[in-house]
Design brief:
This protein is of the alpha/beta class and 666 residues long. It folds into 4 domains: 108 residues, no CATH class; 82 residues, Threonyl-tRNA Synthetase, Chain A, domain 2 (2-Layer Sandwich), CATH 3.30.980.40; 274 residues, 3-Layer(aba) Sandwich (Rossmann fold), CATH 3.40.50.300; 79 residues, Arc Repressor Mutant, subunit A, CATH 1.10.10. Helix content is 41%, strand content 12%. It has 20 helices and 17 strands. It has a 10-stranded mixed sheet. The radius of gyration is 41 Å and the shape is elongated.
């Protein structure tokens, strides 16, 4: 019995102690109410008949209430108001009790009811406290650490792997630029990478914006490419090329959309060696080539190192040098031809209807307004891979003109290079490529790729370098500007993707668009058979027939017709005066007659045209001069003569000439 009693006493004591411990935080309001009652009764005994005491007590109550309101300026508005009301009510009752007595009139009732209500209101306030208060304190402490002590955090939205908090800065003392400068310190305080914290300023305010924090990087694991997102769709549909760090898809658009208020777009793809430009290009090109109403031209000085599985799908693919020169010359003439066709058919900009046969009278080129039935014009994408070499060789003017005019012609230009600095690309050309995919780079090159506003918002591709291939920032029309500073990553192409790309290329040959008569005709008129068009000949298995690339020794019937009848055993013709010094670069050597010179040079131009090299200069004739014993000044003179005769046209490059196809008007 004694042990049971001791246990009961111990249990009762522990329960009482627990209840007392839980009640302690709620006791101060009740103690305060009791203290006011005692103070009012004591004051009545001292100053019941004193007029001066009444005035003093009244002034004291007003002063105490004002002091409470002033002291609460650093707290929340609700707490400040609650404190002021409590002090005002308590001091008013005490003044009345001191002058009239605590038991006079309604004073006892107001004391019992009002005191209990005020005490309970503070108890309820304490009970309703949640973890929001500590978080707010932590947020305030964080802002103080990074130099934004007077900033206030408002509405906060919590999404999966994304927190967005409205931030209001101190008016007249802080601006959104201060937040941009503090982002790296915020990331340090939260122990997150710099790219995980960004700021989206309010365009209508210089001191408000949203602070966005992405605590977990979902891009760490690469996402393998498994095929195009919409085979057989239209080029107006979004191109899916990867995902953002919060898991949402990364999409871009090429043609304009009048309803969405989006113009057609050109893209600059910039990134250092190893940053993932190749995979980014493959993501874009596989999406483009899988659409039914688009053709693509590709210039790749790297001999199609990354794009060889897709070769059959391109409408025209060339390597660097003369092939790229011809393509640029063709683009300069194709663009106005396409613009003219769209204008005649009442298209303000290219739409999917323009790629179909024109059976709608609203898009007829006939004066009488009846349906013209013209063949449609697919969208055109011109891709310049490793464009730094092409920019140096061709000059910025060619690319700038193409970029400025191509959008109205249903054409998008892609320029890919490692470093879009001012010595690689002029400011005019850069301004003509407003859309950009910025991959990892040298920190000093960030400003060449991204606008300053996006960098200020927290975008820093220099933090990646070549350590995170495929990581990028995308600035383009159709994308929410709030997304510009959000890191994304393009999908990865593994060796298993080669077979799928080859299948895609075969699908494009059978189902993809072919160049319309306007585009093909303008290209051939400028560069002749250098423009090949997409191959459509297939073998018995349905695959595109690829010609044998081996170089056989030219013998027998492979000789030129004028050489086929020559006897290889016959003696050479006797030497003529000057044949002993046919040195290149000298004026000495046998001089042909003017008629013979024109015939020989015309034959050389025909040979270049048959080989598909439509842009030539003196350096291209070096081997020909050595073989025939003519000097470079002689060739330069013949080039000028051919230009006067209309066989050549000058290009943007000094000393380079475009061959006018022999069967077209000069």
């Amino acid at each position: 019995m004694r042990n049971r009693d001791e246990h009961s006493t111990s249990t009762g004591g522990s329960i009482g102690a627990y209840l007392l411990h839980r009640a302690k935080p709620h006791l101060p309001p009740w103690i305060g109410a009791a203290g006011i009652g005692v103070a009012g009764s004591g004051a009545h005994l001292l100053w019941a008949d004193s007029v001066g005491a009444g005035v003093g007590l009244t002034l004291s109550a007003v002063a105490l209430t004002g002091a409470t309101w002033w002291a609460g300026r650093e707290t929340s508005p609700q707490r400040r108001l609650h404190s002021a009301i409590t002090v005002a009510a308590g001091s008013t009752w005490m003044t009345g009790a001191a002058l009239a007595g605590p038991l006079s009139g309604i004073l006892p009732d107001t004391y019992l009811m009002g005191g209990a209500v005020l005490a309970l209101s503070w108890n309820i306030r304490m009970a309703l406290r949640t973890t929001d208060a500590p978080t707010g304190s932590a947020d305030k402490s964080l802002l103080e650490k990074v130099g934004l002590a007077k900033a206030k955090i408002g509405r906060t939205e919590v999404e999966p792997n994304r927190v967005t908090a409205a931030l209001a800065l101190e008016g007249g003392e802080q601006t959104t630029d201060d937040v941009a400068k503090a982002l790296v310190r915020i990331a340090s305080a939260l122990d997150l990478p710099q790219s995980a914290v960004r700021f989206q300023p309010d365009p209508d305010s210089a001191r408000r914006g949203d602070l966005v924090i992405v605590p977990r990087d979902m891009l760490t694991e690469p996402q393998p490419w498994e095929g195009p997102s919409l085979p057989g769709g239209s080029i107006t549909d979004p191109l899916v090329i990867g995902r953002y760090d919060d898991g949402s898809p990364l999409v871009v658009w090429l043609p304009g959309d009048p309803e969405a208020g989006r113009n057609a777009q050109h893209f600059l793809i910039a990134g250092g060696t190893g940053s993932g430009k190749g995979d980014t290009a493959l993501n874009l090109q596989t999406e483009i080539l899988s659409r039914r109403d688009v053709i693509m031209w590709l210039s790749d000085p790297k001999a199609f190192q990354d794009f060889r599985p897709l070769l059959p799908a391109y409408d025209w693919a060339v390597e660097g040098g003369a092939g790229t020169e011809a393509m640029v010359e063709a683009l300069q003439h194709v663009i106005p031809a396409r613009t003219g066709w769209l204008g005649k058919h009442s298209y303000r900009q290219w739409t999917p209807q323009a790629a179909e046969r024109q059976t709608d009278p609203a898009h007829s080129c006939r004066p009488d307004g009846t349906a013209c039935g013209c063949e449609g014009m697919p969208y055109l994408v011109a891709w310049m891979e490793e464009a730094a070499n092409s920019l140096r060789a061709l000059g910025d003017d060619a690319f700038t003109g193409i970029a400025q005019e191509a959008r109205s012609a249903g054409c998008s230009l892609f320029v890919s290079l490692q470093r879009p600095s001012y010595d690689q690309m002029s400011t005019s050309t850069r301004a003509s490529l407003p859309s950009v995919i910025a991959l990892g780079c040298d920190p000093r090159d960030e400003g060449f790729s991204l606008p300053d506003a996006v960098i200020d918002a927290g975008a820093h591709p220099g933090a990646w370098g070549n350590r995170r291939p495929g990581y990028c920032y995308v600035v383009a029309g159709g994308i929410d500007p709030d997304r510009y500073a959000s890191p994304a990553r393009t999908r990865q192409f593994t060796p298993d993707a080669t077979a799928v790309m080859e299948m895609l290329a075969q699908w494009a040959v059978r189902n993809g668009a072919v160049a319309d008569p306007i585009t093909a005709g303008a290209a051939k008129a400028v560069v002749g058979n250098a423009y090949t068009g997409r191959r459509t000949d297939t073998d018995e298995t349905g695959q595109v027939a690829v010609p044998d690339q081996t170089d056989d020794i030219q013998t027998g019937t492979q000789l030129a017709p004028e050489d086929a009848a020559m006897d290889p055993e016959a003696d050479l013709p006797p030497a003529q005066q000057g044949d002993d010094t046919p040195l290149f670069g000298q004026e000495t050597g046998r001089k042909p007659s003017p008629e013979e010179a024109r015939e020989l040079f015309a034959r050389a131009l025909d040979e270049f045209e048959e080989a598909g090299q439509m842009v030539v200069g003196p350096k291209d004739f070096m081997d020909w001069c050595d073989a025939n014993g003519y000097s470079r000044p002689w060739v330069s003179a013949r080039l000028r003569d051919a230009a006067l005769e209309g066989r050549l046209q000058p290009t943007n490059q000094t000393g380079r000439w475009r061959i006018v196809p022999a069967l077209t008007p000069a």
